[in-house]
Amino acid sequence: MDVKRKVGRPAKGSIKSKIPLAAESPDVSLVGPSSLHCVKQLEEESISKNPAEENPEVNADDPFEGLMAMAYAADILEKEEEDEEVLKKRRQEDAAKKREQRASESKAERRKRLAKNRVNGRERRARESEEDRRNRLDRDAERKRARRCNETEEEALVRREKSIGHRRKYLANQSLDKANARRAQEAERRRNALANETKEQADIRRKKNAIRRREALKKETPEEAAIRREKDAVRRRNYLKTATDEEKEAMRARDAKRKKKARREAADDSDDYEPPAVFQSRLMARRTSSRK
């Protein structure tokens, strides 16, 4: 006798049999979006319970895992390079905006900004450690060298004039104690440099000093020349007070040599110049005639 299947009764392997499969293995074709959300939540909870499974160790023997690790490292490097380029571009844009703002600001705004920068700089330098200070000075020196290598002759001239003006203004506002301490430091630095320099460096230094001295003498006024002579005389007297006999003798020899050179240069510049041999013979003839 054949038993008829009731209408509405699910057959074997139909929907009822697929429900436990959906719970065991989340297949998109079997479950809807709400079930997928539940499965993801279950996975996150299992990972939070077992955090070791979140970042499994890479098996070095497996070539596929090694390639994946290399690709991941390459992606990280590429991302870092992109971030650096974006950061560099943003810094350039910020610098351009800052230059535009400074070009359009008034004198009062500029003074206010510079005063604020000075205060912030002093506070930042007071907080920094010795290592940070050395790193900052190294960075500043490197930046200055790079800027001077790329500057033109006109820019170098403007920079030197600005530096001289800033130094004069700084020295004019300096207190007496700070000025004396600065002079002592400069003298100590100069003595150390002179003690450690080679013969070639000494020759170059003397030539540069001579050129600089001649240029300064050409530009000085009579009042400046009188002040210079007075300073030289005071410096010479102070030196002779503490100098030894050998140092005094060396100074006299240098003075005689300098006077002879100055006389020779003055004779070269005059119109009635005659060679030293002719001058010597004429002098000897005058002496012999006076003896007779």
UniProtKB/TrEMBL annotation:
Region of interest called Disordered, as start-end residue ranges on this chain: 1-66, 80-160, 173-292
Biased composition (Acidic residues): 54-64
Ranges of Basic and acidic residues composition bias in the record: 91-108, 120-160, 179-204, 212-235, 243-254
Domain of life, per lineage: Eukaryota
Entry protein name: Uncharacterized protein
Source species: Caenorhabditis nigoni
Lineage: Eukaryota, Metazoa, Ecdysozoa, Nematoda, Chromadorea
